[in-house]
Specification:
Helix content: 25-40%
CATH architecture of the largest domain: 3-Layer(aba) Sandwich
Structural class: alpha/beta
Radius of gyration: 19 Å
Distance between the termini: 32 Å
Number of helices: 11
Largest sheet: 7 strands, mixed
Shape: globular
CATH class of the largest domain: Alpha Beta
CATH topology of the largest domain: Rossmann fold
Strand order of the largest sheet: 6-5-4-7-10-15-16
CATH superfamily of the largest domain: Translation initiation factor eif-2b, domain 2
Bound molecules: 5-S-methyl-1-O-phosphono-5-thio-D-ribulose
Length: 345
């Protein structure tokens, strides 16, 4: 079955299934080149996730589900494939969530005496994809209602069609709100060091005709102080049981700025991003990436030879700084442990 993205306004397809393989848009080459890569083994899927060929919390969950289904062609390798996929990136819990679900399905099939697991596991991966697609749509509806007509919004990293199965999480909200006249323009923070904001988010916004401007990350405070920003909307990679939310490095700083300037700060994330097993944000594993991504830009050094650096790829925003968490099951406002549980069940 070929995956569809009916609800995608501009038909950006970061990954789709066709003829026994997952085809993924190589996001490392955007915005300049659009190259689609064929991934036909769990090893290739794990490497694509690890090397950021595809990225974004919901999308890596969907890719992992397909990677696991591919492994069913060699049933003895299912557990190995699950471990490999799980180890590909640590922060986004969608990956673990997808694999837990796929493993449970495999166990159920085995208990029922099913011998060939490939077709039913592939169907489960398709179902996982379709649910994410639908979650995008619902989040965009819930989220758009939170914005006043004519709003100027700011976002960080890429939480758009490139990170999910449908129109995206935070960018899905912005897309729908734009169509409803609730968003007039958007600021995309560039998101050093990997530049998801400038390379990916601005690309998505411009394709769609949403008036958008790029900000270096250190311009956000000045813009919030001197101009009208009506809301900040970001995605999340893992939300702890108390509603603390991990997202791309720089998000926490933006949340502090938003609070100081009285700007509502929204997190849009599907329920697959919530990890009730983790009591608070302090326990969320934060990926440390190579410092080469900090001391180099597109392969060119921007620091003295031998410079030391740090590269935490995510940070955690305490729930007290979040105005609302927008999920496909409803809006958690203000977010805390009790309300998160109540909305997600
Ligand atoms: O390192 P990345 O590009 O995978 O990080 C992505 C983000 O931090 C997104 O904001 C997050 O996954 C939310 S996408 C719905």
């Amino acid at each position: 079955m070929e995956m569809t993205k009916k609800d995608t306004i501009d038909a950006i397809r970061p990954a789709y299934w066709r003829a026994e393989a997952l085809y993924a848009l190589d996001q490392r080459l955007l915005p300049h080149r659009q190259v689609v890569v064929r991934l036909s083994t769990p090893e290739a899927v794990a490497a694509a996730i690890r090397d950021m060929l595809l990225r974004g919390a919901p999308l890596i969950g969907v890719a992992a589900a397909y990677g696991y289904a591919m492994a069913a062609k060699r049933p003895a390798s299912l557990e190995k494939a699950a471990r490999l996929l799980l180890a590909s990136r640590p922060t986004a819990v969608n990956l673990a969530h997808a694999l837990r679900r796929m493993r449970a399905k495999a166990a159920e099939l085995r208990r029922a005496g099913v011998r060939d697991l490939y077709a039913p596991l592939l169907e489960e991966a398709h179902a996982f994809f379709r649910e994410d697609l639908e979650a995008n749509r619902r989040m965009s509806e819930f989220g758009a209602r939170l914005l006043k007509p004519g709003s100027t919004v700011m976002t960080h990293c890429n939480a758009g069609a490139l990170c999910a199965s449908g129109i995206g999480t935070a960018l899905g909200v912005i897309r729908r709100a734009f169509r409803q006249g609730r968003v007039r323009r958007a600021y995309a923070c560039e998101t050093r060091p990997y530049l998801q904001g400038s390379r990916l988010t601005l690309w998505e916004l411009m394709r769609e005709g949403i008036p958008a401007e790029l900000l270096c990350d250190n311009m956000a405070a000045h813009i919030m102080k001197t101009e009208r920003v009506d809301a900040v909307i970001v995605g999340a990679d893992r939300i702890a049981a108390n509603a603390d939310a991990a997202n791309k490095i720089g998000t926490y700083g933006l949340a502090i700025l938003a609070r100081y300037h009285g700007v509502p700060f929204f997190v849009a994330a599907p329920s697959t991003t919530v990890d009730f097993s983790i009591p608070d944000g302090g326990q969320i594993p934060i990926e440390e990436r190579s410092i080469r991504e900090v001391v180099e830009v597109f392969g060119r050094s921007i620091a003295p030879k031998g410079a030391k650096a740090r590269h935490p790829a995510f940070d955690v925003t305490p729930h007290g700084l979040i105005t609302a968490i927008i999920t496909e099951k409803g809006v958690v406002k203000p977010p805390d442990r009790r309300r998160l549980k109540a909305v997600l069940g």
